[in-house]
Amino acid sequence: MYTPDLYKNENQEEIRAFLKENSFGILINHTNGKLCATHIPIELELNADGKEILQGHISKLNPQAEGFRENDQVLAVFTGPHSYISSSWYDHENVPTWNYIAVHVYGRIKIVDYENSVEQLKKLVDKYEVNSKNPVRVEILSEKTMREARGIFGFEIEIEEIQATKKLSQNRDDHNYKNIISELEKTENPQSIAVAKEMSKCRK
């Protein structure tokens, strides 16, 4: 991912929090001579050795999974809030741009066995059911329902490199920076308002 130095995020705690909060990602690999991508939840977890990895699952019917055995190198892409930035919001002439936050994780993937796949599903469901009025739990699902879990591959990605971009108008002076935040808040667009919130965190 091309990222000018000004926009590189090397704060590991921030990156870790971002991955946990924006875990619906895009898994990309090379299968049968072409690039393939699947949109799935991919969770940051610790393995048995205490090392950070990514975990997820994919349908056994998905042709993308065939490529994991041929070439275990994968890319997981995670995106956060993003918004168009109008140059009419500046006090000088300039070009419009786009503000966004994104993280690319490069690594090597391996398929895990059925038992580990089910454990991953339990963690995933528990995470997203925590605020449910009547939370679903994998442990109480019927044997018939759980047969569907036989149709997936659980996987782990050994993380080799993380590239993180946080492009939030860092190149603007305080006056223009504050004005961008103000204009974003006026849009009533949830993505734009989320960008304004992130910008407010970066510069008080």
Automatic annotation (TrEMBL):
Alphabetical list of Gene3D superfamilies matching this protein: Electron Transport, Fmn-binding Protein, Chain A
Highest taxon of source: Bacteria
Alphabetized InterPro entries for the sequence: Split_barrel_FMN-bd (IPR012349), TR_PAI2-type (IPR007396)
Protein name (Swiss-Prot/TrEMBL): Negative transcriptional regulator, PaiB family
Organism: Flavobacterium anhuiense
Lineage of producing organism: Bacteria, Pseudomonadati, Bacteroidota, Flavobacteriia, Flavobacteriales
